[in-house]
Design brief:
about 325 residues; alpha/beta; Quinone Oxidoreductase, Chain A, domain 1; Rossmann fold; 2 domains; 6-stranded parallel sheet; 10 helices; about 30% helix; globular
């Protein structure tokens, strides 16, 4: 099969790789679309020791089952492979499984390829008529969905009466903003430094899209802040912007330390919640919301051939991509 292989920092090669062989309980999926995630970019730049080269990256996948009793079904897939028997798995929180693996991280190759192997229990059937490029959004949208519903549970008031700030207008940040809107949020601000992404986020939406460097974000103004970047500066912004008694939900994994104002969080009883991926129920709810149109027109996706994947990575690194999500099609 053909695959896009990360070979070293800043290097990715389109080349032949062995076809996958499914193990017990696994199937082979023919990939129809696979999104480029921020974590893929992080690995591509050599900043993720969990993803050593050579490696097939990519975990936002939609495709068709090629083997086993479900052959022919169109599916998206939960990329988290978990044990199924630990307390977290049995409680419906498999995203916290201590034995979890994820495709695109050893020992499991990812989806920037014509085929991949995955446990059958990780498959989620797609509604009839859902385009592969939209189905591939299920994974990043589910990450935003889980962040929103987790933050909403921690609020002292209703979401409809809460000023909301999302930091970052990549796919996860924009997804979180759209989920907020679908769940009744009315005063949603999205902070993004890239002017092309600001244009994309603002196009055809009722979101207030702002440049966080221009000084217009007021301190103590937002009851719910979602940091979809996870860097020192974005945590500093979240700390300043959150209102007393408010909630910060942290999704991003850009930098491990720095930025939080612990004194303010303590004196003003700010709730800080880290969220990682999603339970399976949130994933299924996201697919249903995508299919129903509840999350908007999704006109911020750009599809490119898998063979042109190296150029897509370069464009993303250089800030030349206006799309919040680039999806590659084998």
């Amino acid at each position: 099969m053909k695959a896009l292989v990360y070979t070293g920092p800043g290097e990715i090669d389109f080349r032949d790789q062995p076809d996958p062989t499914p193990g017990d309980g696994e199937v082979v999926v023919r990939v129809e679309a696979v999104g480029i995630c921020g974590s893929d970019m992080h690995a591509y730049l050599g900043h993720d020791e969990r993803r050593p080269p050579p490696l097939i990256l990519g975990h936002e996948v939609a495709g068709v089952v090629e083997s086993g009793r479900l052959a022919g079904r169109r599916v998206t897939l939960n990329p988290l492979v978990t044990c199924g028997v630990c307390p977290a798995c049995l409680e419906g929180r498999a995203n916290l499984c201590g034995a979890r693996q994820i495709i695109s991280m050893p020992p499991r190759p990812g989806g920037f390829a014509e085929f991949l192997r995955i446990p059958e229990r990780n498959l989620i059937d797609l509604p009839d008529g859902m385009a592969p490029s939209i189905a591939a959004l299920s994974e990043p949208m589910a990450t935003g969905w889980h962040a929103v519903v987790t933050g909403e549970r921690a609020l002292h008031g209703s979401l409809t009466a809460t000023n909301c700030l999302v930091i970052g207008a990549g796919a996860v940040g924009l997804s979180a903003a759209l989920v907020l809107r679908s769940r009744g949020g009315r005063n949603i601000h999205v902070a993004e430094t890239n002017p092309l992404r600001r244009q994309t986020a603002a196009a055809g939406s009722d979101l207030t899209v702002i440049d966080p460097t221009d000084g217009t974000i007021e301190d103590n103004a937002f009851g719910l802040v979602i940091d979809a970047v996870g860097g020192v500066e974005t945590r500093r912004l979240a700390s300043a912007a959150v209102a007393p008694g408010g909630v910060i939900v942290h999704i991003g994994l850009l930098e491990a330390e720095g930025g939080l104002d612990i004194r303010k969080m303590t004196l003003q009883e700010v709730t800080f919640i880290g969220t990682y991926t999603y339970p399976m129920d949130d994933f299924r709810d996201t697919v249903a919301a995508l299919h129903s149109g509840a999350l908007g027109p999704l006109n911020w996706v750009e599809a490119r051939p898998l063979a042109d994947g190296a150029e897509a990575f370069r464009d993303l690194q250089a800030g030349r991509a206006a799309a919040a999500k680039i999806v590659l099609t084998p």
